[in-house]
Amino acid sequence: MSNIVAIVGRPNVGKSTLFNRLIEQKKAIMDNVSGVTRDRHYGYAEWTGKFFTVIDTGGYVVGSEDIFEEAIREQVQIAMEEAGVVLFVVDCITGMTDLDKDFADVLRRSKKPVILVANKADTTEKSYAAMEFYELGLGDPYPISAENGNNTGDLLDAVVANFPDTGEENPEEGIPRIAILGRPNVGKSSFLNALLGTERSIVTDIAGTTRDAIHTRYTLYGKDFIITDTAGMRRKARVNDNIEFYSTLRSMRALEECDVAVIILDAERGLEAQDLNIIGMADRAKKGIVLMVNKWDLIEKDSKTLPTMEKELYQRLAPMDYMPIIFTSVLEKTRIYKVIEKIAEVYEERSRRVPTSQLNEAILPEIEAFPPPSINGKYVKIKYLTQLPTPSPTFVLFCNYPQYIKDNYERYLEKKFRAHFGFEGVPITMFFRKK
Ligand code: GDP
Ligand code: GDP
């Protein structure tokens, strides 16, 4: 088993704070609603040369008074399935609760090593409060402060002691993470199931083999992928989350964590306002995009139908008309492979880095041929440009009057970037800086 540690505990004890401390990445966006944390569910950590994966099981479970029991069950199940070590977090400030005892009962019966973490021991005085947790029968509590980092080193020593191997630094580097998005009924689950249906394609499930897999790794037609947030699709009705809010939240989370978004439309309905919203969201998030027009089998067609529809779609998408469009039938399994192929291509395009010299050689003549229009008698002169080392293509253009560059000129430049360097399916970002 690989090096995996799972964090469990009732809501508000500081699981996501601890998670973020372990992966040293304060990316979590906390919601005011107790138990709803919009953050990553797993990440990578390193301690004394050992690499391991951290799962925040709390992130999977929407805690509320009436589903505590369910929450415990789900968290513990994920932890048991996935982890080599379980961190059971309790709270020194509020002290022991019945729910802590319930958790402890379940954990004591498990065969996994459990480390009892008494969080919010921000000071030495407060850490004395950790003593009461001995009563849980899970050994010595580790008093720590996830917030200020107190004693987290000792905790990490105890964690990695369970891992004989050094582990892999980042087992997912270079593997595209994809999200499957679209309005209800366009065929997201069917598409996913079609992918899953290619038996033996599953390499590993990183978090959750059953229902709550947030990141699942597959090999499809010889290409590796990680699909983010399959939970929302594979399992539609679950406690408390048949609400639109949670499904939107989950889509946003999946989008946030992906490299390439596969956005599915229904061919019979065409491109509607809601579809444009989803596409706009992916565009703003600077994700790679593959547009999949599904249920193509339902369309009565002749040889002109596809090119006509494609043309119309591009017109409506403008200026977001840079993404590949693939007409599929998940039902009849047509062009599914094409989608997979495009995802891989778009992923490559998104990570493309153009050397500065090549960039200037190509783009400066385009600027000279069609310079930005003068404004109030001022001539904008773009002197040179360079690409930033960001996850999606971002260019900085140095000029004398950055404030005078208008949107339509940016569009012109974007077209030239694409003409020279491709970037199919990838939003391009430009910054104009004074030089
Ligand atoms: P979760 O619901 O278990 O994931 O808990 P969160 O990580 O969202 O934390 C719940 C609250 O406890 C937040 O307001 C945190 O700022 C706070 N918190 C987390 N860790 C500590 C800590 O070490 N000390 C103190 N004083 N507060 C903490
Ligand atoms: P989701 O809500 O986006 O996950 O959509 P589903 O995958 O549940 O599909 C909704 C309905 O559309 C189901 O009845 C599917 O069988 C059907 N469906 C999915 N893909 C296709 C397709 O390519 N052609 C046709 N005719 N029906 C499809």
From TrEMBL:
Keyword Mitochondrion: no
Coiled coil: none
Keywords, alphabetical: GTP-binding, Nucleotide-binding, Repeat, Ribosome biogenesis
SUPFAM superfamilies: P-loop containing nucleoside triphosphate hydrolases (SSF52540)
Pfam families referenced in this protein's UniProt entry, alphabetically: KH_dom-like, MMR_HSR1
Domain EngA-type G: 3-167, 176-351
Domain of life (superkingdom): Bacteria
Classification via InterPro entries: G_ENGA, GTP-bd, GTPase_Der, KH_dom-like, KH_dom-like_a/b, P-loop_NTPase, Small_GTP-bd
Swiss-Prot/TrEMBL GO biological process terms: ribosome biogenesis
UniProt binding sites for GTP 2: 182-189, 229-233, 294-297
GO molecular function annotations of the record: GTP binding; ribosome binding
Binding residues for GTP 1: 9-16, 56-60, 119-122
Subunit structure, interactors included: Associates with the 50S ribosomal subunit.
Summary of the function given for this chain in its UniProt record: GTPase that plays an essential role in the late steps of ribosome biogenesis.
Family named by the database record: Belongs to the TRAFAC class TrmE-Era-EngA-EngB-Septin-like GTPase superfamily. EngA (Der) GTPase family.
UniProt-recorded name of the protein: GTPase Der
Source organism (scientific name): Siphonobacter aquaeclarae
Lineage start: Bacteria, Pseudomonadati, Bacteroidota, Cytophagia, Cytophagales
Gene name per UniProt: der
